[in-house]
Specification:
rod-shaped; 6-stranded antiparallel β-sheet
Length: 419
């Protein structure tokens, strides 16, 4: 199609004005399509852009007939499967066809060519978008009618493509920089949160060490000192009375029980011996023991003992989080029951600790430090913590969510330190 030079110049200037200072690619493409329509008719116009950091993928922006190519522009397609791959890969300078339905260049094994038929695209014209000698995409023009475009149209399309290429290149690069900046900001935010959380966890572990030391000093050491004095007194009396020996034996038994409790708090032996669910059940029994009115408990493992197959540091960390959640519920929630559910759903391990206590609303006394410790422990094994903040009197739920893939890594990966 021959077009007078002055008309071409006017349209090119109009296209330049349409793209100047604009950032909305879809809106700009609409303006370009209007101007291009005055040079040659088209029923469908789209621009395929090769992703800057993924040169084997491309996305499409289109106007006119809506097709699967541009229906989800942020979902990339493979360049190797694009019907215009020869243009995108620089194998040909352009593609011109009078009937795309029968043109074998568009149809090959795996080709994403369905829109050609669905949108009834017959005449097609494709030229590359080139910046500094590098192909960044293609301008694609189509009509329903057969045998519409000629070599003159190819030259016009090339000139339009030369106007568009720097614009699309700049916008895509700017978008890439923006996404990188956002990702970097998010990463820094996570890093800072993890740093602060780790600091709180370290402080919590130090406080726990001091608590264990105080338990040993105030309880176990005091018991042993009293037993030692009683033994010394009995020894001085010569032949000890039966009642004295029974009393001494009872005190020794109580001292051993208390020491065992402290050791169990430090290392959950049931976890290694009988598995995660049994360890959680034992923890529940210890936590609610001696409390009146009695607190009902339950453990429901729907995962098929999935956790028992995980690496020991991960199992222990999960147990510590559940242990903290149970202790918080019993100490601060005043519940009548505490339930633990373990399941694997949608590729995620989920452990829920649910109570029917005072909830997490105003006036709730749950330790913020305890939640911080749980969050940090979770982050260190790539898990997340979900806290259900219920209204006062309606209970609390704490869920540990861990992607299954995060704990099914090769055995030669560095192990997570017990936390």
């Amino acid at each position: 199609m021959h077009v007078a030079p002055e008309v071409l110049l006017e349209r090119y200037l109009a296209i330049s004005r349409a793209i100047a200072g604009q950032l909305d690619l879809q809106a700009v493409l609409g303006e370009i399509a209007k101007e291009a329509h005055l040079l040659f008719c088209h029923d469908h116009l789209d621009v395929a852009i090769i992703l800057p950091r993924k040169p084997d993928e491309c996305i499409s922006f289109e106007v006119g007939v809506t097709t699967e190519w541009g229906r989800a522009p942020r979902e990339p397609n493979l360049v190797a499967l694009s019907p215009v791959r020869d243009v995108l890969l620089g194998k040909v300078g352009h593609i011109l066809t009078g009937d795309a339905w029968s043109d074998e260049r568009f149809h090959f094994d795996g080709s994403f060519d369905a829109p050609i038929y669905d949108a009834d695209l017959r005449s097609r014209l494709h030229v590359p978008l080139v910046v500094l000698g590098e192909i960044i995409g293609s301008l694609n023009i189509s009509r329903h009618k057969k045998n519409v475009y000629d070599d003159d149209d190819v030259q016009i399309a090339r000139q339009i493509a030369d106007l568009l290429a720097p614009y699309f290149h700049a916008v895509m690069r700017a978008d890439q920089v923006k996404q990188l900046a956002l990702a970097e900001g998010a990463a820094r935010g996570r890093e800072e949160a993890l740093r602060l959380g780790t600091l709180r966890l370290t402080e919590g572990m130090e406080n726990e060490r001091k608590r264990i030391g105080m338990d040993l000093h105030d309880q176990t050491l005091a018991d042993l000192t009293r037993i030692s004095r009683k033994f010394a007194r009995i020894s001085k009396n010569g032949r000890p009375a039966t009642n004295d020996l029974v009393s001494l034996g009872t005190e020794i038994t109580n001292c051993v029980s208390e020491l065992r409790r402290i050791i169990e708090d430090t290392k959950p032996g049931v976890l290694e011996l009988f598995g995660f669910a049994e360890a959680v059940e034992a923890q529940l029994e210890r936590s609610v023991g001696g409390i009146s009115p009695k607190i009902a408990t339950s453990v429901n493992d729907r995962s098929g003992s999935f956790i028992d197959g995980l690496r020991e540091p991960v199992r222990t960390t999960l147990f510590r989080i559940v242990q903290e959640a149970i202790n918080n519920a019993v100490r601060h929630g005043n519940p009548s029951r505490v339930d633990v559910c373990i399941e694997v759903v949608g590729g995620r391990l989920r452990i829920c600790v649910v109570d029917d206590g005072s909830g997490t609303g105003p006036g709730h006394q749950q330790s913020t430090g305890g939640l911080d410790n749980m969050r940090v422990r979770a982050a260190l094994i790539s898990a997340t913590l979900e806290v259900g903040s219920s209204a006062p009197g309606e209970g609390t739920s704490i869920a540990i969510v861990l992607p299954v893939l995060a704990v099914q890594e090769p055995s030669d990966e560095p192990e997570v330190a017990e936390v």
